[in-house]
């Protein structure tokens, strides 16, 4: 991959682009791409080769929708995804079309793939599968489903649409499968090409080596973070236990202080009540004595006013 341009602005000030796993739509412009790149989390990134899209990917960074991690695109770019060549093979299938492998008088376009027969078949063969009991349990897949699932893994149907030769080579610059004639003429003559089988192995090895290295680094970071979290958790539990014990001790102390204060107040109230009752009792005694004398005087006064003398008792 060509060198990516330098960042235009500070990437931390921009919202990252959202990358959908196995999506063939460029995260920047939305156009279909034939080449998938591999993020450090092993998920895929669809990014076209336009300079504006390359600049935007560096400037805004990329957020993986699967694991939610945000990555900065390095200046040297990302390695090809292990399934990038498979996508190119499937695109070649779609371009040139696939013929039915059963014997017919004339060529017929295939519309389905039978997993048990390991053949591409036409509509008449599909109907034939549905009529006979021995073929009813065969698994039939539409060509679209076969392509979306990554193809059948077979390469013998890859015919060059220009020269009719079997496509056995993969062009790294164009991300296309080509035949040996294409590799000897422009525009592929000056490009880097390799055999499909070798490219599959090399692509997988390079991608997974890079991803494994990145994953090991992330594992170390995650392990360190886990130990820190566990240490903080243990510290927090100790602090919590100490705080609870301190609160309980303070509660008992406050209970004792409040109880002593309440007992003192109750004693003062009792003393005040007792003194008040004693004073009232004395006042009551004085009033009773005075009332008794006044009643006696009143009785004598009535005798004098009535009889003129005081009767002796």
Give keywords.
mainly alpha; three-stranded antiparallel β-sheet; 5 helices; 48% helix; 10% strand; rod-shaped
Question: How would you describe what is shown here?
Answer:
The structure is a single chain. By secondary structure, the chain is mostly helical. It has 5 helices and 11 strands, in the order βββαββαββαβαβββα. It has helices at 51-60, 84-96, 123-131, 143-148, 196-307; strands spanning 17-19, 36-38, 44-46, 62-64, 70-71, 112-114, 119-121, 140-142, 169-171, 176-178, 193-195. The strands form 4 sheets. Strands 1-4-5 form a 3-stranded mixed β-sheet. Strands 7-6-8 form a 3-stranded antiparallel β-sheet. Strands 10-9-11 form a 3-stranded antiparallel β-sheet. A hairpin with a 5-residue loop joins strand 4 and strand 5 (70-71). The radius of gyration is 49 Å and the shape is rod-shaped. Mean pLDDT is 77; it is low at 1-13.
Q: What is the average of the pLDDT values? A: 77
SSE succession: EEEHEEHEEHEHEEEH
DSSP, total strands: 11
Q: Given the helix and strand composition, which structural class is it? A: mainly alpha
Shape: rod-shaped
Q: How much of the sequence is in beta strands?
A: 5-15%
Number of helices: 5
Report how far apart the termini are.
143 Å
- Helical residue percent? 40-55%
């Amino acid at each position: 991959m060509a060198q990516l341009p330098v960042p235009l602005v500070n990437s931390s000030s921009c919202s990252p682009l959202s990358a959908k796993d196995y999506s063939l739509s460029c995260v920047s412009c939305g156009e279909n791409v034939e080449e998938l790149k591999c993020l450090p989390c092993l998920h895929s990134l669809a990014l076209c080769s336009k300079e504006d899209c390359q600049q935007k990917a560096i400037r805004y960074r990329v957020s993986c929708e699967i694991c939610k991690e945000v990555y900065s695109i390095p200046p040297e770019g990302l390695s090809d995804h292990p399934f990038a060549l498979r996508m190119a093979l499937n695109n070649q299938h779609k371009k040139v079309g696939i013929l039915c492998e059963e014997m017919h008088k004339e060529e017929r376009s295939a519309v389905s793939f039978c997993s048990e027969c390991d053949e591409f078949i036409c509509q008449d063969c599909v109907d034939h599968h549905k009529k006979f009991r021995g073929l009813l349990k065969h698994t039939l897949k539409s060509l679209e489903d076969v392509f979306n699932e990554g193809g059948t893994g077979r390469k013998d149907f890859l015919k060059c649409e220009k020269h009719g030769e079997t496509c056995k080579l993969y062009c790294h610059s164009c991300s296309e499968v080509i035949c040996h004639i294409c590799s000897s003429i422009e525009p592929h003559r000056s490009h880097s090409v390799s055999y499909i089988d070798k490219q599959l192995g090399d692509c997988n090895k390079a991608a997974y080596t890079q991803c494994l290295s990145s994953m090991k680094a992330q594992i170390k970071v995650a392990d360190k973070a886990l130990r820190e979290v566990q240490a903080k958790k243990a510290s927090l539990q100790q602090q919590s236990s100490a705080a609870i014990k301190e609160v309980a001790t303070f509660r008992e102390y406050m209970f004792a202080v409040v109880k002593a204060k309440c007992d003192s107040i109750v004693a003062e109230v009792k003393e005040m009540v007792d003194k008040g009752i004693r004073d009232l009792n004395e006042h009551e005694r004085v009033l009773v004595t005075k009332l008794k004398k006044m009643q006696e005087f009143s009785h004598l006064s009535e005798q004098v006013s009535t009889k003129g003398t005081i009767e002796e008792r």
